Amino acid sequence: MKRLFKRFFLRPELSAIIILLVLVVLFESLSGRFLTVRNARVILGVLPELGLVALGATMLMIAGEFDLSVGSVFAIVPMITALLARLGWNIWLAILCALLAACVIGFINGWITLQFAIPSFVTTLGMLFAVRSMTVVISGGFPPPFPENAPEWAFTEQLGIIRVSILWFVGFFVLATLLLRNSNFGNWMYATGGDPAAAANMGINTHRVKIVCFMMCSFLAGFAGLIQLFRLKSALPSLGVGLELEAIAASVIGGAALTGGIGSALGAVVGAALIRIIDNGLVISRVDANWFQFAIGFLTIAAVIFNAQLRKLARGMKVSV
Amino acid sequence: MKMLTVTVLFTLASAFAQDALQITFTHHSSASNTFWQAVQLGMNEACELIEAQCDMLFTQTEGDANQQLANIEAALARGTDVLITTIVDDNIFDEVIAQAQADGVIVLASNVDDSEGAAGNSRLAFIGQEFRSAGYELAQGMSELFPEEGPIHVLVGISAPGQNWSETRGGGVLDFMADYQAANPDREITFERIDSGTDLAVTASRIGAYVQANPDLTAYFDTGFWHAGVARELESLGYAPGEILLGGFDLVPDALQGMQNGYIQLQVDQQPYLQGFLPVIQAHLMDRYQLSAWDVNTGKALIEPEDVDAILELSQQGYR
Known about the structure:
The complex is a heterodimer of chains A (about 325) and B (about 325).
Chain A: H1 2-9, H2 14-31, H3 37-62, H4 70-86, H5 91-115, H6 120-139, E1 158-159, E2 162-163, H7 164-182, H8 184-194, H9 196-201, H10 206-232, H11 243-253, H12 265-284, H13 292-316
Helix pairs in contact in A: 1-13, 2-12, 2-13, 3-7, 3-8, 3-10, 3-11, 3-12, 4-5, 4-6, 4-10, 5-6, 5-10, 7-8, 8-10, 11-12, 11-13
Chain B: H1 2-19, E1 22-26, H2 35-50, E2 53-57, H3 65-77, E3 82-85, H4 94-102, E4 106-110, E5 126-128, H5 131-143, E6 152-158, H6 164-183, E7 189-195, H7 200-213, E8 219-222, H8 227-236, E9 245-249, H9 253-260, E10 266-269, H10 272-289, E11 296-297, E12 301-303, H11 308-317
Parallel strand pairs in B: 1-2, 1-3, 3-4, 4-5, 5-11, 6-7, 6-8, 8-9, 9-10
Antiparallel strand pairs in B: 10-12
Helix pairs in contact in B: 2-10, 5-6, 7-8, 8-9, 9-11
């Protein structure tokens, strides 16, 4: 039993799940309208976008790096898709091309970071500005029209209280979980982020692992942007501004460590859900929504402290073998 | 007895809160944008008059249409009776507004409308400025201050590329410049646009750099009020007032100060207080007396430096 508790307390996403449950109860008791079908539909409609970005950011953080350019990649993928569609390209080809561009941006982020041994903070900060500027330049200021033949059914069609985007989100979540928990590559990611020197000594190609993680992170950010394009039906150049910090906050709240080697796909999902629930709950409960950023900041710190205390508690538990 | 009184008062207060019209104003700006303080003041004072329960929902970052949509959906989920919103994009809000109206919510647009007006969105009315003509008249008014001889070079700062309000105002300025160019075929007249940002410091720095590279700049038009930062930048770069003409929108205190210093020559007032006050009153009349909604052009008045003293105090109080 004690062993079970110890394993439970060591789960990185535990504190976020507890906070999530507390907030759900709090918002429902304040508003009486939080746990309604309609509001669930609202939250589930917007969750996949931040959730996918947080999923990519978490996997990259597990490998010991992070990416500040995700908000800009989130904007440029819909922009490329809409512009190519306007030029008469087949919509699926346009989507494929835009997602490929996202992967290329991820590759460049990783290659520059590792080739020149500079912090990913610097590389991706530069990429954040460069890609945002490219988005504005290629759009010419005006958002291109939403493609008429766009396959909404494949991305954002409403199915009862959920949208198709939730299915994509769940699909990517399952894939990420399998990758992290049941594959060699997942083990390499944890090893690379936890102790890169030891991982390299074990024969893991840490550079390759990190570059793949950079590319997955950019791909998921771009895919999330695509979902937002289909939901909003507008490829604004300003999509995703500030999203990078929300994604990092979601990852950290979900238990990922900035130092690498710790984190989980479930944590990313819970972290993203927490942010979206706070955003929605403050409005529903008629609390001044200008407190949103305070709440996120406070929770980020609180979740990390809470996690650290739970780990300390778990490590202090004596389990007989 | 005390307990009974408290219970009765609590019940009455709850009943009042249930009956009061619930009005939500959502828009695309953050709480740090001073323009919206005047709109909020107008909304709050109207809400006090009609004893409605009102909220204004800001976004975390300037121009975040996605968060604005999320705020609208959350407000509808909590059961708001009236939705007042800005329509900064021609597509994003169409579906949610149509659904809200189908659910019996009164929806009014304020400050920014669909670029196609009522044809582009099912909102019942628009209370705000007609952007294109305001931009056109700003440039037309400023052209009277252009030098009578020599080349003219104009820069138009699009504060939020892709957003209706900014693009349409900028489009109005550019339309006038095209007409001005056509009317003066013998003069060298050039004009271009720049992504100028929605932050005083960012706009100041970008236009400051532009001026270094283009010392022949005649005038800079901003589609918001961020040229107030440019006024300070020009002063620090050693330019004399009026050496580069500055014009833009909204009577925020920073812009009025720029006019007093002589660096800003012309400003368009769209009366933000009315954009908060009037939709609330309209919604109240529609709800109580089943009156229909009506459009209001809250203004395109050109304000010159000599008008500033009379306006400054009211601006600082949030009414202009």
